[in-house]
Structures are given as C-alpha cells and as structure tokens.
Amino acid sequence: MLKKKKKVFIAYTDEQKKNQFLVRKGERFFHLSSQKEIRKLSLKEAYLIFLMITAKELEFRGTGSFVKMGKGGIK
Q1: What pLDDT is attached to residue 75?
Q2: pTM check: above 0.85
Q3: What is the DSSP letter of 50?
Q4: What does the pLDDT read at residue 72?
Q5: Which residues contact 8 (CB under 8 A, 6 or more apart)?
Q6: CB 49 within 8 A of CB 59
Q7: Looking at residue 5, what is its pLDDT?
Q8: Which residues are CB-contacts of 47 (< 8 A; sequence separation ≥ 6)?
Q9: How far apart are alpha carbons 75 and 64 in whole angstroms?
Q10: What is the pLDDT of residue 35?
Q11: What range does the domain containing 45 cover?
C-alpha cells in the first residue's frame, strides 16, 4: 500500500483505543489523530507506524482512499 502514490489512508487505534490515521498524499505522509490534529511525518516515521500495525502492536481498523480532498483537507 505504501508504494502507490495516491491519496490513501490506513486507520488504526492507539494504546488508548482512540482512532488514528496514517495518510499518504503523493510523496508526503501525515498523521491524523482523533483530536483532528494533523502532523507531517517523515517516510521513516510513517514506515514505523506501518510496521507497528503489521506487528499487531497497534490495532488495524481498515484502509481507504480519498476521492476528493476539499476545503479543510490536507494540502
């Protein structure tokens, strides 16, 4: 999933069972928290989150893609 350069996300829960999102938009990665805070991630940080999900340290919720990212979206 991380090889494709689309607007995609991976949903997971953190240790407190709050929803989190790992978002990829082109070459850039972002973390979207349940408090609607957006933080830019490096490729290494995004990959570490992905590894934690695959190792089942974080609970996987699903994946998806964005058809449109309108006002208020990640720019």
Answers
A1: 46
A2: no
A3: H
A4: 53
A5: 1, 23, 24, 63, 64, 65, 66
A6: no
A7: 60
A8: 2
A9: 18
A10: 78
A11: 8-63
Query: Could you give the residue ranges of the DSSP H alpha helices within the chain?
Result: 43-54
- Mean pLDDT per 10-residue run, the chain (75 residues)? 69 89 91 87 95 93 72 50
Q: Is position 68 within any domain? A: no
39 CB-side CA count, 13 A = 12
Number of H helices, E strands in the chain: 1, 5
* Alpha carbon distances (Å) from 64 to 16, 22, 26, 74: 23, 11, 15, 15
* In a domain? residue 32: yes
Both tokens of residue 9? 């996300």
> Across-strand partners of 29?
24, 41
Number of domains, the chain: 1
